[in-house]
């Protein structure tokens, strides 16, 4: 959890909260190439929902206060980046569902790395990907994971725009909410 109260300029009226929840799981595909891996996405759905709900709770318990989100995965060295891609659907849809049908695609990143690898998880507005004030990232990682046969799965949420966002573009209050873009 992070609470940002100042970032140059005048302190904001309301601090920005950013939070991440991470899970370390065994990678069932580590160590060998497997052609058919898609079924594992279904297995990850309950974990995604649990993580999303826990993160909302950690950020104050009000899903309506969440304005930004993102997801990511770090795959241990006996795996491949495609194993991290298995988190796209269960991680993304879990957050969208827990937040009441958020419209925007959940931005994502993934990579293969050793224990201690860090990951910058991209963040965008939950209802419109073109809201520049909410373009952000949160660095996540664990000192002892992922081991070679593990994956670290991450969800990130924020309660607002970057402090002092002022680069123009679509404003959150002008979102149409039709297509997840604008």
TrEMBL record:
Keywords: Plasmid. This is Amino acid synthesis family protein. It comes from Rhizobium gallicum bv. gallicum R602sp.
């Amino acid at each position: 959890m992070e609470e940002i109260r100042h970032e140059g300029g005048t302190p904001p009226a309301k601090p920005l909260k950013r939070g991440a929840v991470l899970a370390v799981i065994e990678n069932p595909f580590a160590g060998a190439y497997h052609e058919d891996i898609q079924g594992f996405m279904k297995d990850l759905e309950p974990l995604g929902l649990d993580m999303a709900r826990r993160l909302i709770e950690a950020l104050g318990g009000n899903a309506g206060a969440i304005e930004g989100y993102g997801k990511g995965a770090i795959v241990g060295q006996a795996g491949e980046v495609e194993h991290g891609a298995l988190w796209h659907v269960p991680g993304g849809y879990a957050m969208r569902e827990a937040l009441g049908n958020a419209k925007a695609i959940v931005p994502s990143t993934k990579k293969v790395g050793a224990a201690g690898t860090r990951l910058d998880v991209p963040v965008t507005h939950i209802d419109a990907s073109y809201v520049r004030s909410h373009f952000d990232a949160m660095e996540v990682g664990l000192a002892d994971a992922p081991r070679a046969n593990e994956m670290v799965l991450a969800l990130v949420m924020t309660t607002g725009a970057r402090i002092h966002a002022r680069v123009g573009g679509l404003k959150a209050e002008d979102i149409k909410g039709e297509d997840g873009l604008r």
